[in-house]
Automatic annotation (TrEMBL):
Residues that bind substrate: H148
SUPFAM superfamilies for the chain: NAD(P)-linked oxidoreductase
Site (Lowers pKa of active site Tyr): K105
Signal sequence region: 1-23
Protein name, per record: P100/11E protein
Residues the record marks as active site: Y80
Domain NADP-dependent oxidoreductase, residue spans: 50-331
């Protein structure tokens, strides 16, 4: 048997070995640097490995590879239709459950087999979706559940994608007269699960400012809002960062390489990210992720390549200078991209000063 050292200190290494083997979470300093503390004290690993568009077998393999490449957070969703594969990957990785952070989502009522026709049906179907998430993933608790997007009142759930719904073109977000009722209904269900400790943290995704205003005065505000954010969208697109900060909501960036939007080639191979990376011996992709992490925003990124997964996890040994951060903040090559595909939020100047009453 060979002795493998976990960290710099032999004593720490031996302690870790005898307690739980050589795992990354044996080093508290490292753990702290890699997590963002949510308002309820839960530590969310900054980096999540996404699984969108993967079938069960690819998702299973990606989960195993990601967990072996330095990721400890997996992002999936009811709608990705791959939670059985994700669950198998979690088990096959052999990692203890407590060392993995699993995020999944439930559809906003109206789309993806979740009705937005009545508040009661919306509630029941939100319960059903959480139960299906637990069952498909084969887990007894979830680290985080997000409401995937704002509701689409009046739609019965037959549309598979929000982009096929009547809410897409007007980007009506939560401005429809019935939207707040559905938002509060779904949020109440998540809050119940949170209070029963079956979900450790609760949040939302693609939520507009208007949706947060629907939740004024609730006992638990969303802890996270997962939205599109990447280099090229400017430093505070549609005021989402300042609004989140003012309301103590942690943002989590999806599509950090611009997937599905504008600028992915600019991000992964453009001069700005490439030339900055060269200064730190890092790739353009690593710079793009580091820019997000440096703003205390979480990241859901995706790769089916072991090499990319390892590189994407390796962003904690350098710090971008203020000057480089400012150049990345100022990039607007993907200014057409918006944090949520359903919002018509006010301009940043108005948004930054608004505050939800809690
Ligand atoms: N809440 C929502 O509505 C929502 C919406 C979109 C996404 N998400 C979540 O966010 C996750 C990530 O977003 P995304 O799927 O849009 O993609 P992304 O992370 O922005 O980009 C993924 C693409 O980048 C490539 N890539 C990854 N690492 C790379 C590297 N180091 N060098 C070069 N290319 C690299 C991948 O190809 P390879 O596989 O070849 O590496 C893949 O084609 C999703 O999987 C999902 O979990 C959530
Ligand atoms: C899953 O997707 C991969 C890659 O696209 C493909 O090779 C494989 O056949 C798919 N598996 C199933 C069961 O559809
Ligand atoms: C749709 O949701 C119902 C419960 O609300 C469930 O019984 C059914 O299996 C779901 N269908 C799909 C395709 O997930
Ligand atoms: C669910 O996980 C348990 C162990 O935690 C395992 O015994 C069981 O086979 C799994 N079920 C499925 C359907 O994979
Ligand atoms: C929240 O409470 C404040 C103060 O009581 C009240 O003015 C406001 O209307 C409430 N908002 C909602 C959406 O209930
Ligand atoms: C490339 O980016 C660097 C860093 O922002 C900048 O100094 C340089 O002028 C850029 N070069 C070109 C050709 O755009």
């Amino acid at each position: 048997m060979s002795l493998r050292l976990c960290g710099a200190s032999l004593i720490a290494a031996l302690a870790a070995l005898s307690l739980k083997g050589c795992s990354d979470d044996s080093n508290p300093a490292k753990e702290k640097a890699h997590t963002i503390t949510l308002r309820n004290g839960v530590k969310m690993p900054i980096l999540a490995a996404g699984t969108w568009q993967y079938n069960d077998s690819v998702a299973e393999q990606v989960v195993v590879d990601a967990l072996n490449s330095g990721f400890s957070h997996i992002d999936t969703a009811y709608d990705y239709d791959n939670q059985v594969g994700v669950g198998k990957g979690l088990k096959r990785s052999g990692k203890p459950r407590h060392s993995i952070f699993v995020t999944t989502k439930v559809p906003g009522c109206g789309i993806q087999n979740s009705s937005g026709v009545s508040v009661d049906v919306c509630k029941t179907q939100t319960v059903d979706k959480i139960e299906m998430d637990l069952q498909q993933l084969n887990l007894s608790y979830l680290d985080m559940v997000l409401i995937h997007f704002p509701p689409c009142p009046g739609e019965d759930g037959t549309h598979k994608s929000p982009s096929e719904s009547s809410c897409y073109a007007p980007k009506s977000g939560c401005t429809h007269p019935q939207a707040c009722d559905l938002v509060r209904a779904q949020w109440g269900v998540l809050t119940d699960y949170y209070q029963q400790k079956k979900i450790k943290a609760i949040g939302v995704s693609n939520y507009c400012q208007a949706c947060f205003h629907c939740l004024a005065n609730v006992t638990e505000m969303p802890m996270v809002n997962q939205v599109q954010l990447h280099v090229g969208m400017g430093s505070n697109p549609q005021g989402f960062l300042s609004f989140a900060e003012a309301n103590k909501v942690v943002l989590q960036a999806y599509s950090p390489f611009g997937s599905g939007g504008h600028g992915s080639s600019e991000i992964l191979a453009g001069n700005l990210t490439t030339s900055i990376g060269a200064k730190y011996k890092k790739s353009a992709a690593q710079v793009a992720l580091k820019w997000i992490a440096s703003r205390n925003v979480g990241i859901a990124t995706k790769s089916a390549s072991k090499e990319h997964l390892k590189a994407n996890a390796d962003i904690f040994d350098f710090k971008l200078s203020d000057e480089d951060m400012a150049s990345l903040d100022a990039a607007t090559f993907a200014a057409e991209d918006t944090p949520s595909f359903l919002c018509n939020d006010p301009a940043p100047s108005a948004a930054a000063v608004q505050r939800v009453v809690v």
